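Q: Hi! First time doing this. I have a protein sequence and I read that you can turn it into a structure. Is that right? Here it is:
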Amino acid sequence: MMILNYSSKKELKNNIGEELNYTETSMFGEEYKSNGSFVGCNRPSLPEGTGTREFFAEVTMEDGLIKEVK
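A: Yes, that's right. Below is the predicted 3D structure, encoded as structure tokens:
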């Protein structure tokens, strides 16, 4: 599953209209779509005090920009 390089889903939503900061992890081809939807996550190790939380999100892209986050 693609890694979304944001500290929270709220931060990801705040970047609607921007390019996606992600890390591709699939061995079977790219999951990223510049037009379309896909699911990604952020599953960091959670040392105390980092403020980084685990989350999953469905991201819809349009023309290479984030259009919607669910």
